[in-house]
Design brief:
The complex is a heterodimer. Chain A is built from no helices and 11 strands. Chain A is mainly beta. The termini of chain A are far apart. Chain A is 0% helix and 48% strand. In chain A, strands 2, 4, 5, 6, 9, 10 and 11 form a 7-stranded mixed beta sheet that branches. Helix content of chain B is 0%, strand content 55%. In chain B, strands 2, 4, 5, 9, 10 and 11 form a 6-stranded mixed beta sheet that branches. In chain B, strands 1-3-8-7-6 form a 5-stranded antiparallel beta sheet, with no helix packed on it. Chain B is globular. In chain B, strand 9 and strand 10 form a beta hairpin. Chain B is built from no helices and 11 strands. Classes of the chains: A mainly beta, B mainly beta. The interface between A and B is medium-sized, with 29 and 26 residues.
Chain lengths: 116, 111
């Protein structure tokens, strides 16, 4: 399978605990995005990387959230001191961004987080 | 006002019907328009991609863009039960990084 891979698929945690999600993008893609999606809503942008550089973070992103893409390949998203409002589907997407080429996002299946 | 507006539905149609899904947007600078299909508990899957006004057809799916009215549509002909999913519209300003999504329309095709 050469698509975007996310692990774990589901995560149940208690309020106050830290959680970490992993995303493996399509191998030749240079951009990687994290989105959050709640029921009945479209994906909400969190942050994105171009290679290993984190170029933008949403203003809505709490400082409890941190993301890394250390070698420009896989990425991790960590949420510290989880709150019930963090319960959502966390989606990773990757794309090949080249000048003159229309960028298309390819999503993984997501990690469903439930904070009890 | 949201950048992208989409009727959440739900929409329920009999098998074989023609389905019309729509989005409106407020920013006339949007240039690239996409439709994603999302099955329950799965990530969105890119269905259609277009960057100009007019129609683009792919099998049973037709994407239509009217930039003068800031309105895009997705038509599904001969709808099948396997088309039952949530359909998200998305758009970008250029080849940059900002993708704006609608809230999605839930579609059920009844056999």
């Amino acid at each position: 399978d050469t698509g975007v891979s996310q692990n774990p698929r589901h995560k149940i945690t208690k309020r106050g605990q830290n959680v970490t999600f992993r995303c493996d993008p399509i191998s030749e893609h240079n951009r990687l995005y994290w989105y959050r999606q709640t029921l009945g809503q479209g994906p909400e942008f969190l942050t994105y990387f171009q290679n290993e550089a984190q170029l933008e973070k949403s203003r809505l992103l709490s400082d409890r959230f941190s993301a890394e893409r250390p070698k420009g390949s896989f990425s991790t998203l960590e949420i510290q001191r989880t709150e019930q409002g963090d319960s959502a589907m966390y989606l990773c997407a990757s794309s090949l961004a080249l000048q003159g080429v229309n960028e298309k996002l390819f999503f993984g299946s997501g990690t469903q987080l439930s904070v009890l | 006002q949201k950048e992208v507006e989409q009727d959440p539905g739900p929409l329920s149609v009999p098998e074989g019907a023609i389905v019309s899904l729509n989005c409106t947007y407020s920013n006339s600078a949007f240039q690239y328009f996409m439709w994603y299909r999302q099955y329950s508990r799965k990530g969105p899957e890119l269905l259609m991609y277009t960057y100009s006004s007019g129609n683009k057809e792919d099998g049973r799916f037709t994407a239509q863009v009217d930039k003068s009215s800031k309105y895009i549509s997705l038509f599904i002909r001969d709808s099948q039960p396997s088309d039952s999913a949530t359909y998200l519209c998305a758009m970008t300003l250029n080849t940059g990084n900002q993708f704006y999504f609608g809230t999605g329309t839930s579609l059920t095709v009844i056999p």
